[in-house]
Amino acid sequence: MRILMIGDVVGPGGCQFLRQTLPALKTEYAPDVVVANGENSASGNGLLPVSADFLLDSGVDVITTGNHALKRIQSYEYYDRTPRVLRPLNLHRSAPGQGFYIHDDPRHPLAVISLQGRAFMDPIDNPYDTVDALLDSLDTRCVLIDFHAEATAEKQALAYYLDGRVSAVIGTHTHVQTADARILPQGTAFMCDVGMCGGYDTVIGVDPQNPIAKLRTGLPARFEYPSDQAEYALWAVVIDIDPQTGKAVGISPLCRRGRLA
Ligand SMILES: [Fe+2]
Ligand SMILES: [Fe+2]
Questions:
Q1: pLDDT digit string (tens) for 188-237?
Q2: Fewer CB within 10 Å: N-end or C-end of the chain?
Q3: From the candidates 68, 103, 148, 175, which is the catalytic residue?
């Protein structure tokens, strides 16, 4: 089976660029399932029902998130009633929604898990113990984990820990695609970060001027998205899995650049 996984989709422009880019990617790669990280999809960051529904209507099958999952209180009830929109599995058990979803394609059932790291991030439950408990209860052979974390070493460590037990561990959160896509020795596809879908000449999706001012002065700054005339980019990865074994047989990063139609 083939998965197309898209990194953090940033703001209305990123959502729009995904909508106009995804049909050609589906034609070219024919994925069985499309997964995108939606934690930055809402205007002003976080996820809102309107931004998640826009991504689902654009052809995304499952939405993962991360540290911004619960930023917008309007999303809480939406998570509860939309099982294919995930918040991190290792949030406290009282969090709304679910941290995993079984994409029940009759030929290729796939478990998608949203998991968050802990280095340089807000406190969250132990991702190792949390994912171990879930994997013990799953009988799905093909498993994709979006590991939303800051530190490359933390992502590598979890991927090697799960090598051979899941089909793929794909990092998100930094919004910058890493050049380390590989299949680990026991058959788990891995890359530290798949990248994002958002403005190209930006600092992780926002106009560079305000992050520069904030980092230069230490004073707060309001982040702004690039203009509708700006260039956009969609970074993603195609993962091929042998459905009989659940092991990965291919992993190919990609990038598409263009302007909003
Ligand atoms: Fe993000
Ligand atoms: Fe994040």
A1: 999 999 999 999 999 999 999 999 999 999 999 889 999 999 999 999 99
A2: C
A3: 68
| pLDDT tens, residue by residue, 47-100 | 999 999 999 999 999 999 999 999 999 999 999 999 999 999 999 999 999 999
| pTM of structure | 0.98
Q: What does the alpha-carbon distance between residue 261 and residue 258 come to, in Å, rounded to a whole number?
A: 9
Residue 210 CA to ligand 2 centre (angstroms): 18
Q: Tokens 């020795």 belong to which residue?
A: 185
- Domain of residue 117 covers 2-259
Is 103 among the residues known to form the active site? no
Tell how far the Cα of 191 is from the centroid of ligand 1, in angstroms: 16
How many domains does the chain divide into?
1
Residue 63 Cα to ligand 2 middle (Å): 14
Q: Which CATH number goes with the domain that contains 98?
A: 3.60.21.10
